[in-house]
Amino acid sequence: MTFPRIGQFKSEKEFSAHVASLGLALPCDASILGRADSPLAQPAEVDGLRIGNRWCIHPMEGWDANADGTPSEHTLRRWTRFGLSGAKLIWGGEAFAVREDGRSNPQQLGVVGGDVGRAEQGAARLRQSLLQAHRERFGSTDGLVVGLQLTHSGRFSFPHDKKQRRPLIAYHHPILDRRCGIRADDDSVVATDQQLHDLIDDYVASAKAAQQAGFDFVDLKHCHGYLLHELLSGRRRDGEFGGSFENRTRFLRMLIAAVQSACPGLKLGVRLSIFDTVPYRPDPAKSGDGKLGPGIPEQFDLPYHDGFGLDENDPLQMDLHESVQLVTLLENCGVVLLNATAGSPYYCPHIQRPALFPPSDGYQPPEDPLCGVARQMRATERIKRACKGMFVVGTGYTYLQDFLPQVAQAAVRQGMCDVVGIGRMVLSYWDMIADSLEGKPLSRQRVCRTFSDCTSAPRGGMISGCYPLDPVYKNMPQHDQLKAFKGKAKVAQ
After folding, report:
1. Quick one: DSSP state of residue 110?
2. What is the DSSP letter of 441?
3. Separation between Cα atoms, residue 9 and residue 17, nearest integer Å
4. Is the peptide bond before 369 cis (omega within 30 degrees of 0)?
5. Which end of the chain has fewer CB atoms at under 10 Å, N or C?
């Protein structure tokens, strides 16, 4: 199954004709509009925060911090480029683990050895590098809003060794347990209610550190299959944090209240997977000769209780009823920013991060990736229209490539979201936003083509970056190591 590459479309008309041939409705302006005319250049006021334009940088895990959780030169370089990007909303910049055993890898930023003070100093260095670069490039930091994403990686925790999992799960997921090597009868890895109460203290300590370091807000991350996201689908879980919607959202409500009490004035955001799906795997009947097959869903039983924002009787379809209910709850609790994402990069990357080229542990796309872009945009629009008071960041735009600014302009103008966020595009073309707002033509040779090396490298224990297009990473020894790793991964699949 092959799909046309976005780069082959030389005009908006060609691109839109292909979109229409797929039966999709993606808005796309005829041209990139400069600062004077672009909806993306308009400022916004959010609960006392002035956001200077409608572009956002998503948080990304670089796998390149120091062992003590502080930023390395590679981490600082990435944050410097966030400052050069031209975006006025920096959503977390990087996933920051609130405790050592919650790190997704041994090089993740966060609190290590319980040393919150050291973590605070490291976070402050990141923020300062970003602000300095932004000030030098754009003359001031007016309208620049910077947050820090707080996380616990749950079943995807590898805090000490890149090959040694240390999971903490909300409940036993029959498919993901098997994938993660967790026995169905091993309850030692299931977080107890007391452990969750204690975890709130860790989040509060990290939120205080973020506030002291000067961040404008913290993101209480609830996405991509990590621990807090998993709690939202904990219908199988007993006790005060499982079963009913009220119980499944209890941790989040308690966490919000605790941070608000301890950190007056600190704004709160939530990055939320607003819908999910059954985990996917490569089709074994179409894999072989070193090639991955297209993704197919794992076998599942009905009703399917193990996802959030999906139809329990048809879990390949989204159901946003509880998602709208949750976002309404967040708004009522004082959360002012929502970053709407979907699924997980670990078990359904085509849903979460549409791409033509799969990561090393993934599969060939089972659909034209534009279908995944449109799905996320449509779901985000439904949330935005149902929860008009919430300031919503849209996700899933990088695959649009050369047409990203044109679709983003139209999406914001039509009220599908308030801000458009990008992630991996910034790794290859960190100043694409500035170029588009300044009316410059895009540098096509720097546009991310979704080769997924920024995901495959961490899967192989290497730092994340754009190995195909960023000269710094292209000239690293890891460049050749990554090629070898990807080859072995395909054979193993």
Report:
1. B
2. P
3. 10
4. no
5. N
The Cβ of residue 51 has, within 10 Å, a number of other Cβ atoms equal to: 23
| pLDDT class of 491 with cuts at 50, 70, 90 | very low
Residues 6+ apart with CB under 8 A from 21: none
Q: Which two tokens stand for residue 125?
A: 């260095």
Q: In terms of Cα–Cα distance, which of 137, 125, 117, 136 is closest to 79?
A: 125
Average pLDDT, the chain: 96
At position 271, the amino acid (one-letter code) is: R
Residues 145, 151, 156, CA angle at the centre, nearest 5°? 140
Integer Cα distance of 350 and 87 in angstroms: 26
Contact 169, 230 (CB under 8 A): yes
Structure tokens at 265: 């004035």
Token pair for 407? 């679709």
Q: What is the rounded average pLDDT of the residues 410-438? A: 97
Sequence-separated (6 or more) residues with CB below 8 Å from residue 437: 34, 35, 38, 40, 41, 53, 55, 86
Residues of the chain with pLDDT > 70: what percent? 98
Q: What are the beta bridge partners of residue 110?
A: 97
Q: From the centroid of its chain, how far is CA 441?
A: 27
Q: For residue 432, give both structure tokens.
A: 């694409």
Backbone angles phi, psi at 307, to 5 degrees: -150, 165
